[in-house]
């Protein structure tokens, strides 16, 4: 449901009676316009690798995909500077991973099949999200900064033409399952609000930390939990895929 609050405000809220793809059109519009922008900012505590359900984003010759990470990488390839502010891999479930390492190292053959499936599905999700985010970190024209204190809770998506803000995280659950609200602000309709959110996003990135500091914090925590020292987050993900999943 689209509600006009005033001439320069566009609010969309998803409730129990609204279709699950209600946020696809504004986000696809945002991403399409982003190909004509010099830079974009994505400020969100949580990012996941979701796909659009109703349609692909086609922008020839750079992308034809429903996968949001394909689109972000295509933006960077097209010369758009992609700035991302997010929490430091907040989706890593340390308790779950401790359980996984315990099972893998001690060969608990009596573990219930249901628990095995649960663990394997969650490990695959962790690997998928971690590798996609790491790929963005190391991509050309991308600048990903991390909040180690896990205090970031703002949700802002801004390009040269518009801002989307509200409760919507950059995740599958927020897009298709949760009840959320967004406010769409167009630069040519409300330049004051647009400029305020643009300055906020830029200033926020300056105070967040680089990938190396985030990675070190994760590896230090793992070393304390499982008494194993990995040299990189990529090495940890490779270990989860090749050693842990095969033992489950």
Concise account of the structure shown:
With 248 residues, the protein is of the alpha+beta class. It is 45% helix and 19% strand.
Structure write-up:
With 248 residues, the chain is of the alpha+beta class. The protein has 2 domains: 1-88 and 148-209, Endonuclease Chain A (Endonuclease, Chain A); 92-139 and 212-248, no CATH class. The protein is built from 8 helices and 10 strands. Helix 3 crosses helix 8 (233-247) and helix 4 runs antiparallel to helix 8 (233-247). The longest helix has 25 residues, at 113-137. The protein is globular.
The percent of residues in helical segments reads 40-55%
- Taking Cα atoms only, what radius of gyration do you get, to the nearest Å? 20 Å
Order of helices and strands: EEHEEEHEHHEEEHEHHH
- Enumerate the spans where pLDDT stays under 50 for 5 or more consecutive residues: 1-7
At the fold tier of CATH, the topology name of the largest domain is Endonuclease, Chain A
Give the DSSP E fraction (strand runs of 2 or more residues). 15-25%
Give, in spatial order, the strands making up the sheet with the most strands: 1-2-10-9-8-3-6-7
CATH architecture of the largest domain: 2-Layer Sandwich
């Amino acid at each position: 449901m689209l509600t006009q609050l005033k001439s320069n405000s566009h609010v969309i809220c998803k409730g129990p009676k609204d279709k699950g793809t209600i946020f696809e059109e504004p986000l696809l519009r945002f991403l399409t316009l982003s190909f004509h922008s010099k830079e974009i900012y994505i400020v969100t505590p949580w990012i996941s690798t979701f796909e659009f359900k109703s349609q692909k984003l086609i922008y020839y010759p750079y992308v034809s995909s429903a996968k949001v990470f394909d689109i972000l990488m295509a933006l960077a390839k097209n010369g758009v500077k992609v700035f991302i502010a997010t929490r430091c891999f907040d989706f890593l479930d340390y308790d779950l991973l401790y359980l996984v390492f315990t099972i893998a190292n001690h060969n608990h053959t009596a573990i219930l099949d249901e628990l095995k499936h649960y663990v394997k599905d969650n490990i695959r999700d962790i690997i998928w999200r971690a590798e996609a985010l790491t790929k963005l970190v190391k991509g050309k024209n991308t600048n990903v900064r991390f909040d180690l204190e896990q205090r970031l809770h703002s949700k802002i998506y801004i390009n040269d033409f518009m801002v989307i803000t509200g409760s919507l995280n950059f995740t599958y659950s927020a897009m298709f399952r949760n009840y959320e609200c967004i406010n769409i602000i167009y630069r040519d309709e409300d330049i004051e609000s647009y400029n305020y959110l643009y300055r906020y996003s830029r200033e926020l990135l300056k105070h967040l930390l680089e990938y190396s500091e985030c990675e070190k914090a994760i590896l230090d925590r793992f070393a304390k939990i499982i008494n194993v020292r990995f040299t990189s987050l990529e090495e940890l993900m490779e270990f989860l895929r090749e050693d842990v999943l095969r033992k489950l």
